[in-house]
Structures are given as structure tokens and as C-alpha cells.
Amino acid sequence: MATNAEVLRYLTSMDFPADKQDIIREAERAGAPPDVLKALRAMPPVDYHNTNEVVRSARTDPAPEVTPADLAARARNRKQQQVARHLRGT
Predict the structure, then answer these.
(1) Distance of CA 48 to CAs 29, 52, 62, 80, 87, Å?
(2) pTM confidence score
(3) Vertex 32 angle, CA 2 and 64, to 5°
(4) Contact criterion met (CB below 8 Å) for 43 and 58
(5) For the chain, what are the domain ranges?
(6) Tens digits of per-residue pLDDT, 58-82?
(7) Choosing a second label site near 39 at 20 to 30 A (CA), which of 5, 7, 72, 76?
(8) Contact status, residue 49 vs residue 14, Cβ threshold 8 Å
(9) Preceding peptide of 34 cis, ω within 30°
(10) d(Cα 16, Cα 63) in Å, to the nearest integer?
(11) Residue 44, helix vs strand vs coil
């Protein structure tokens, strides 16, 4: 599966707003690999106004460096588990 960074790498010269087909054509022209093109083809057929909208719509792996073991370790870390100020008792 393609990552967000890989998708963005092939859209650096893209002019927005653009529709789905224009985005796919630009990625093909830039030499995008098949997994990036597959992620772009899975997007809804709407007009996109910037690369952030493209990344949110494309089927990508947003954070491949985070493993399930990392997530479990974060959940067990008591330092990060704090109550928000508005939920604290007065």
C-alpha cells in the first residue's frame, strides 16, 4: 500500500483545483508506481482543491512506521494518560 508521502511525491507539479482523472494523469506522467496509481484510482470522482484533500481521499497507509505493538505500548504508558482540564473535578 502506498503512503501519503509517496502519493504527494508524484503530485508536486499539480495545479489545483483538479478532478480525479487529472490527478491520475499527472501521477502517471510523473512515473508513479502501480500502488500509488491504485490509491488514486480508489478516490471519489470529485474536484480536489489541494494535495491535502487528495491525501485524505486516497487509500493510503498514513503512518506505516506505527505498528500495533507501538500503539499498545502507548496505551500502557501512564504519563500520556491525563484527564483534560475541562473534565477535571473542581
Answers:
(1) 18, 9, 19, 36, 38
(2) 0.66
(3) 15
(4) yes
(5) 4-65
(6) 888 765 567 788 778 877 877 666 6
(7) 72
(8) no
(9) no
(10) 25
(11) coil
